[in-house]
Amino acid sequence: MAVKMCCMRSQSKNGLLFRSEDIKIIMQEDLCPDQTFKSHMLEGKSSFNLLFFLSNAINLEAHDCGTQFLFKKNQYILHYSPKENVAELWTENQEILKYLQIQINYQYIFNLINPEHNRENAEILENMIHNNFIFLHKETPPDMTVEMHMIVKEILGYTKKGIMQKLFIEAKIIKLLILIFEQFNEKNTLESTPKTPEIIRKFIDENYHRNIKAEEIGKYIGMNQNIIRKEFKAQYHTTIAHYISELRMLKARKLITDKEIMIKEIAIECGYEYLQNFTRAFKKKFGVSPESLRNNK
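The structure corresponding to this sequence follows.
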């Protein structure tokens, strides 16, 4: 068991969420910690460990180097452990202890990146092995992006088992690694950090097919939804709702020409739970119903 408890309590949620030959995912959540409670996290031999800190003021003491760190909520690290290692994590002042550990075997990452393919791949693996992804530009632990929050939420909420779960988990881990590499490739953090409207737009571009609203965007960005609406409109001269609708209609217009796809399926693909709502929006946008436009093609 990768996460052991120093004390047992009824208000602790922890355990193995997923395990395969190459990947292990463990969730730790203690709802009522005290000064004596510490979580013992095991890093396997020759493994990469992604740690997402989901509560505030988490102390981490690594036994291999005797170093202690303090992490804020929504920070993360990617740490390589050449040998089996134990770390202790705890909070102070009755703070909740909550973090997600994703452990990945070295050989899996090696095969995924294939450092023998080119120099860029080799440099990425070398940076990972030397733990250059723990601190952003060697100053502070990196913050989770909106996309990272979404992926973590999807991993925690996924319920299928078997091969579907394995494929889903591997796809999400690859996406997380891509986001991490992109974040660390930014040469100037201050200049390259996107402004709030750009973050909102990117979030919408990747999630408009779902039933998203300003409230959800605000939750993941950590900003009041009214400010989000105001800044987005000031930048792009349109509302969030109208922008989402435009994206959905552009996709619907593209799909409607394929007569092998049912109109109901197009509606779902474009983020509409009910066909009548999709038809109403389509007709308002293009002046004709989806059926009429399809029949005239």
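The radius of gyration is 22 Å.
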